[in-house]
Amino acid sequence: MSAADTARRPSRRGRDSSPSCATPGRRAAAVACLALVAGCAGGPAPPDAGDGIPASLDGRSGDAARGRALVAARDPANCVLCHSVPGALAAGNLGPPLAGVGSRLDRAQLRLRVADERRVMPETIMPSYFRIEGLHDVAPAYRGRTILDAQAVEDIVAYLAALQ
Asked: What confidence tier does 91 reach under pLDDT thresholds 50, 70, 90?
C-alpha cells in the first residue's frame, strides 16, 4: 500500500483520517465561529447591515482592556472554549485562532459576528450573543435577554480590532 493510499484510509473510528477541520461542514463551523461574544439585557436585535453593523449598538465606544477580560473569561462569553486567544492560558480549537482577527475584519464585521454570527453563517455553532428572537433551547437564565449587554459587545469589538 502506498503512502497516498494510507493517508486516505479511514481511521478506526470510521472517519477519513484528514484533519478534523478538513471536512466542509467542520470547516464552515470553524470559520463561522470566528465571531465572538456579546449581548444586551433585553435589547432588540441589531439592524441588518449586510456584512457588518457599522454603528455602536448603544452609541458608546468599547474599551479594549475590558474586552480582553471578557474574551479570556470562562463566563459569560466563554470565547476560550472554542478559540485560542493571545495571552490566554486556556484555548479551544473548534473555532479559528483570534490572533490577527483585527487585520482580517473591520469593526463593523467584528460587531456583527460577535452580536449574531448566524447572520453571516446560519449553520454556525457559535452562540448569538446579542439576539433574542428566533432562538431554540435557550437556557432559562437567558430567556428574554441576550447573553451580554451592548457595552460588552463594544468592549469585545475594541479588543478584537486591536488584534492586528
From this structure: confident
What CA–CA distance (Å, rounded) separates 164 from 159?
A: 10
Q: Report d(CA 27, CA 30) in Å as an integer.
A: 5
Q: Rounded CA gap, 56 and 59, in Å?
A: 5
Does residue 7 have a pLDDT over 60? no
Q: Report the distance separating Cα 95 and Cα 11, nearest Å.
A: 23
Distances (CA, A) of 117 to 8, 35, 69, 89, 110: 33, 6, 21, 25, 9
Query: pLDDT tens digits for 63-73?
Result: 999 999 999 88
3-state secondary structure string, 107-120?
A: HHHHHHHHHHHHHC
CA distance 116 to 99: 20
Question: Which residue is listed with cell 484528514?
Answer: 18
Mean pLDDT of all residues in 101-119: 95
Contact 96, 113 (CB under 8 A): no
Architecture of the 24-162 domain: Orthogonal Bundle (1.10)
How many CB atoms lie under 10 A from the CB of residue 156? 32
Residue 97 DSSP symbol: P
